[in-house]
Each structure stands twice: as structure tokens, then as C-alpha cells.
Amino acid sequence: KKLLLERNRGGDLSHDDYKPFYVSVKRKPEIQAARLKLPVCGEEQVIMEAIRNNTVVIICGETGSGKTTQVPQFLYEAGFSHPDSVNPGLIGVTQPRRVAAVSMASRVSHELNVTDEVSYQIRYDTTTSKNTRIKFMTDGVLLRELAADFLLTKYSVLIIDEAHERNLNTDILIGVISRVLKLRANLSKQDREKIKPLRVVIMSATLRVTDFTQNKSLFDNPPPVIKVDARQYPVSIHFNKRTPEVDYVDEAYKKIGKIHKRLPPGGILVFLTGQQEIVNLCKKLRQRFPTLPKRASKIDVAKEKASIEAESRIETVSARNEDVEAEEIELGDSADQIEDFELPDSDEEDDSDDELGFYGEDDVPNEEEDTDAPLHVLPLYSLLPTDAQMRVFEDPPEGTRLCIVATNVAETSVTIPGIRYVVDAGKVKERQYNLGTGIQSFDVDWTSKASADQRAGRAGRTGPGHCYRLYSSAVFDNYFPQFSVPEINRMPIEGVILSMKSMYIDNVVNFPFPTPPPKPNLIKAEKILTHLGAIDRDQKRITDLGRSMATFPIIPKFAKMLIIGQQHGCLPFVIAIVSALSVGDPVLRDSDLNDLADEESDSDDENGTTDVKKMELHNIRNESVAEKERRKLTRSKYYQTQMKHAGLDPTSDIIKLLNIVGAYEYAGATQSFCEANFVRPKAMEEIRKLRRQLTNLVVANCDGVDVSIDPKMQPPSTLQLKVLRQILTAGFIDSIAVRKDYIESGGSEGSKFKSTRGVPYRVMWSDEDVFIHPSSVLYHQPAPLFVAYNEQFKSSKVWLKGVTKVEPKWLAKIGKSMCTYGKPLEFPVAKFMNEKKTVKKSWVVPSFGPKGWPLPPVE
Ligand code: ADP
Ligand code: MG
């Protein structure tokens, strides 16, 4: 063995060097037995052989075949990451979702029967230590590491998981890694002593990998594709005869009830689109099919009820945070794999809504069965706390049927054991961007055919299964796209471009993206970064400011606010603001949503908008009591002090957000504060956590900065409030809106508007009228000429949210790169002033933005 180690130490990764090196693992017998049944384990030899002989290997295997849990273990056992082996670097595994990174690390650790050798790292949280051998992480984490170490010298092998999802980060990673591979293979002789070649494994749940194999700019030689054949039992597909007009959640509820009452045992997996729907459906199902034995004492019943209520209350409260949800919104892009499996009846439609439409030979329902048998209902979505997520892997209590209500996190990332019935609403919620304007909306839409098939496949893991599609086959045929569009073609990419720039990828336009984004998007992202001062105008290279910005794991404009936030003691406030903006609005309901709802519902009827929206509107209308209650926040002492400084006129929604954070801390960060003021406790906690982490990051990243978290954050002073608004303006410099009448009159203030209600504004990159959202504090204020906004949101109109009043004269300074200055005013000004002043006076009448909006004179 000693001889062998000697040889390994010097050698390259050739077949002979690897073969005899095995790390022994003491798995528990039941674990060992279970993993041997996984299809991937049957291919261990083939997989390891391919990895030894190729720098890049692609593994395709149906969800649940064991890719994520087993392949890292193969590598571990083959000596990768072992300190004595030829390749002592870490085994890195990337996941698109935090949920998966955390749960898979714990699963693999459990299977290997080790304590600290398997770790995870997600944004702001890690378990890595010097003993780490296998590291699960989100792809964002690895992208950030690239900025510090482009050769990824820490790693001997990288597994890029869930590549079929075609997430933005995954795509970028694969592009960058194709370059890293070349560099690691062509090191100087000296470096080769220290840095070993890198192996890359790309894993996909579908066979659609041609973007990786056939793309010549990625890999010189097409990497081998190993197809793992999973045992898949036939799944019968049952389409609804009609697609429900109104409410697919209700339709799902009915279908689940029927399955549960009439069909033989087996878990039910339901696909909906988001947290709110899931929580509502779970609640309804739990009420209808409670898990408690009938003879339970009254006290037990009360206890159970209370605990369910507490759970759903908090969940409902946190459900409002679309931003956070969106950050981890699951994208369904996948799967033509299912064509390998037999799908009987796939074109048949359910004849009547009352029929479940099948009974297989072994499937004769047991008429004797208690029709109200308990149902063990569990939610599954990205924001669910990890321990609650892990409950889906446990066996349901004796005598109950498992029913999981999930987003499409259950589509490929997580495999739930024992599922026999799938109920598929056929919808997916995605953050959509209008690339021209950056306008963002959350759209619930039909998912793709590929992802619907992937969902159906979940029913056939343990035996023949059934998939109930809550839509007709006609809708499926005509409205479902074959595949969903890769994320890179759907979103603004400043953050990614900045990270890429900080990795010295200057020419993003020629970057080997698996699917290159349209050039205009790349150019626009570069433009925004230029305005923020993150890249220089001519060379498009990252600036010092940009480099500092890139060290913060937040979007570039927030990073800029942090960096310039160190003025007049504003940094703690800026940190609080950025944390709150990153987490999203913690307020349960914004005031005046009722107005909005009324306005919107008119146009909704015209456009026949989705049922989801109608449901939401319904909920909104029923919340006026909550609305009144929530105004309590303004009675907080913190609020009052702050308002006094602000001269009693609110000037910014973002400052209001700061107030909420401040008032929460001031009140001792209690749950009761959240309840009394209708803010989401989970969001407030997350903001708090982020504040602490950002504070540490600022201290670590910026020399000489002394900032600490003030547990009782004092309200900002009058001066600080003004500076904060300027900092916000600087961050949102590409998101300035101007009153339309002001532009049209060529810069005269014209009439005064008592409120911003119905006053049209214009933003820089579009010719559409936009309006300040009714939830804004500026809604009832005189309409300012200039505002900076955090987001544009399209519903019946285009709304500006997170609005801050901007003094026009600030723009000439803060937005210098966006100003065009007229000719120097030589006469008569020059006549009366010395030369120096003339030059200064040439700044007098700048115009602002690409359209040359007038700016008032600057002294
Ligand atoms: P793939 O990555 O190919 O989709 P996985 O490696 O995630 O497959 O899963 C392999 C098997 O391990 C599945 O059958 C799944 O049910 C099981 N499994 C995964 N995580 C857990 C867990 N936390 N508890 C119990 N079983 C699990
Ligand atoms: Mg997996």
C-alpha cells in the first residue's frame, strides 16, 4: 500500500493510479442494502472508469436513481479528496437550490456514517471545516469562489448537479469551468506539482444535454454521456375532461379526496405553484382528513389544532414574501426521458369528473376501508425550514396515507419515497422579466410538456402509478411548450456579469454560454454596471468600486449602497436597508391595496386574468381589519421619533422599511411586536440575520470600517435621513422616474399635484406611463418631479414600488455618468466670471438619462 501511495503522489490521473486506492467506509447494513438497489450503483464501475479517462463526464438518470447521493460517495471511496491520494482536493457538488444542498449533505453524511467530512455551504451559512471532504453548495457559492480562485485549486472534482434545469448559475458555471479545465490541464511544470488536473461531472435528470455536448465553444471533445437506466414502472396518465375554469387548488382538493377515499394505499404527491397555495391546501386537507385517532381526548385534539393553527399562521404570514420565494423559485425545464417508459392511456381523458378512470388488476379498491382514513399532509417548498422539509422523507404514521403538497422542488431535486399518485395542476410560478424595461412580474403559467412528464414519473418509482392532470389533453397539446426557456434568456444579468468581470471575464459577449443570451441583454447589463461605476466606460473592465461590489453576495445596486454608505454614520442604516430589500417586504399587507384591488379587478375581468389573481384579490378584500390594525406600527415610539426628524412628511418607502426594522429592534425583536404590527416574524428574523452577516462582511472587506450592530437601533437624524435618500438615489441611479408633464413641458414644473395618485411618470428605458403604487408612502404626498424606485411591477398598469423622493439637483452629482451637459454658457456668464467659474458654469444645464430629460439648474 505504501508503494502505491508513493506512486499516486506523483502521478497524473491515469487509470492505474486510481484503481487500487480505496477508502473504506463503514456504512450501516440497512443503508448499504438500500443503496445497492439504486440504479446508479449498478453503474459504479462504468461511471468511475469514465471519470478516470475523461475530464468531463455527463451522467443522465431519472430522478431518484441515486445520482446526487451516490456519485459523490463513489468518488470518496475511490480516493478523491483523501489526503494521501493523488488528488487530495475537495469533492465539490453544486445544487441550484439551498434545500437540496443542505438536505443532500446530511443524507450523504448519514449514508457514509461520518460526522464532519460531508459539509454544505449556502449563502450565509456553512458547516465546512478542515475535515471536509465532500462539499455540497449552491452554484452561486461556487461562482463566488471563482472570483477569489479562478483555478478552483481547492477541488479535485466538481459535480454540477441538476444541469437539466438550465439555471442561470449552472449555465455560467459550466461555461467558466470549461475554461478552468483548460487552464488546469495546461499548467506550468512547477504549478503542476501543486495543482492537479480537475475532473468534472455534469448530472442531469433528462437526456437533453446536447447544449453541453455539441457546443464546440464549451468542450473540445464531446464528453461521454452515461445513461443510467432507472427502473420505472408504468404510470397511467389521466387528463381531466375539462380544464377547470376557476380554481385548480380546489380541483386538486377534490381529486385528492377521491383518490384517498377510493384508491389503494400509496402516497399522493401534488404539484402546485407556490407557498401560499400549498399552505392553504394543506390546511383544508388536514381539516377534512385529520390525523388524530377518533377517540383522542379533547385536550389532545385542542393541542393538535392549536399546533396546526400556529404553524399555518406563521406560514401564512411568511407567505407574502414573493421576493424571497422567487429567489428560489423552482424552474421546471426538463425531461423527455419519460418516453422511455410505458405510459398507457396517455391520450385518454377522464370521462367524468367523478371517475378516477382506472383500476389496474392489483388495484381493486378496498370498499371496506374507512372512507375518512387519516391523511398525513405535509407541505414542501423552498422556504420551508429544513427540519420541516426533512419530514417528507419519514414514513407516515401507522394507518395514515402520505400526501405531499409541493412546488416543483419535488420534480427532480428531491425524491420522496412511496409516491404512487401524482396530482398535477400543470402550472408553474416563475419570476418573469421584461428584458427591455427590467419590469418584473410573477407569472403563474402552464409548465412545459417535459416537466409535466417529469412530474408524472414521480408516481412510478415504487410500483405502477397514476398521474392525474387537472387539465385537458387539448390544453396540454396546444398550450404547453415542449421545454421551458433557459433562465439566462429570461432575466437581467447584471449580478452575474459583475461576477464574471471580477473573474476577469471581460468579454462577456463572447463567453461560452451553453445557450448564449441575446447580445442586447449583455450590453444593457454592462450599461447599468457602468452607471453604477462598477465597470469602466471604455474598456468594460471592472473598476475598484466594482471589485468591492463583487465581494458582496447581493445584487450590484445594493452592494454599491453599502460601499458608499459609510458617511455620516449611515452604514448601520444602509446595512439594515439592504438586508430588508434583499429579504423583501416584511409587511403582511400594504395599505391601500384595497383601492388597487378594485382598480385591478375591472381590467382583470376584461382580460380574463388567472384564477390565482382573482383568489388573491378576494383575500385582499377580506383583510381590511388587518389593515386597520397594522397602522399600529406608526404608533411605535421609534416611528414617531423618526417621523419628527423627517418633518412629518414621508419621503421614501425604503426609509419606511428601515423604520420597520428599527421599530422591531427597538421593541426588543419580539414575536408579539410582529403580531401586533402585521409584519412577518420569519422575514424580520432573516433581516436580522442578514444584518449581522453583512456587518461582518463589511468589517472584513472594507479596511478601517468600524461598524457594529446596534441592538437598539436609534432613529436616524435629519441629516442622516437626507444622506440615506442620496445613497438610495446612487444605488437606484438607473431606476429614476420623472413626472411625465415635466418632461413634456421641457422642464417647467407646471401644475402641482396634491397626490401621486393617477399622475403618470416615465422611466428611462421605456415609453410607457408608469404610476406610483398605492402602497407607497408617496401615494398621498404631493407628486415629486423625480423619484428613484426599487422595482417596476406590472399588473393592470405598470407600478413603481419602493419609491424614494429625489431632489433633482442631486442627480447632476450622483448620476454624473448619466448626465449630458450642454455647451458651456460663455456669454454673458463668462463675461462676468473668471475662467474657472466659467468651466463650472458649463455644468449648469445638464440633461439626464438616455432620453435627455431636463434637469433644473445646479448652483
Ligand atoms: P437523484 O439525484 O438521481 O434524483 P437521489 O440520489 O437524490 O437521486 O436519491 C436516491 C434515493 O435516495 C431516492 O430513492 C431517495 O428516496 C433516497 N433519499 C434521498 N434523500 C433521502 C433522505 N433524506 N432520507 C431518505 N431517503 C432519501
Ligand atoms: Mg438529484
UniProtKB/TrEMBL annotation:
Task: Look up the domain of life of the source.
Answer: Eukaryota
Q: Which GO terms describe its cellular component?
A: nucleolus; ribonucleoprotein complex
Q: Name one GO molecular function term.
A: ATP binding
Q: EC number(s) of the enzyme?
A: 3.6.4.13
Similarity-based family: Belongs to the DEAD box helicase family. DEAH subfamily.
Compartments, record wording: Nucleus, Nucleolus
One of this protein's GO BP terms? Answer: maturation of SSU-rRNA from tricistronic rRNA transcript (SSU-rRNA, 5.8S rRNA, LSU-rRNA)
Q: Which PANTHER family match?
A: ATP-DEPENDENT RNA HELICASE (PTHR18934), ATP-DEPENDENT RNA HELICASE DHX37-RELATED (PTHR18934:SF99)
Could you tell me which residue ranges the Helicase ATP-binding domain spans?
A: 48-225
InterPro entries, per this entry? AAA+_ATPase, DEAD-box_helicase_OB_fold, DEAD/DEAH_box_helicase_dom, DNA/RNA_helicase_DEAH_CS, HA2_WH, Helicase-assoc_dom, Helicase_ATP-bd, Helicase_C-like
The primary site where this protein sits is nucleus
Would the keyword Secreted be found if you checked this record's keyword annotation?
no
The UniProt keywords, alphabetically, are: ATP-binding, Helicase, Hydrolase, Nucleotide-binding, Nucleus, RNA-binding
Q: Where is the signal peptide?
A: none
- Alphabetized Gene3D superfamilies for the sequence: 1.20.120.1080, P-loop containing nucleotide triphosphate hydrolases
Q: Where is the composition biased (Acidic residues)?
A: 324-370, 595-608
Q: Which organism is it from?
A: Umbelopsis ramanniana AG
Renumbered residue ranges of the record's region Disordered: 319-370, 595-614
Domain named Helicase C-terminal: residues: 248-504
One Pfam family it belongs to: Helicase_C
According to UniProt, the reaction catalysed is: ATP + H2O = ADP + phosphate + H(+)
User: What high-level taxonomic lineage is stated for the organism?
Assistant: Eukaryota, Fungi, Fungi incertae sedis, Mucoromycota, Mucoromycotina
Looking at the keywords, is ATP-binding present? Answer: yes
Protein name (Swiss-Prot/TrEMBL): RNA helicase
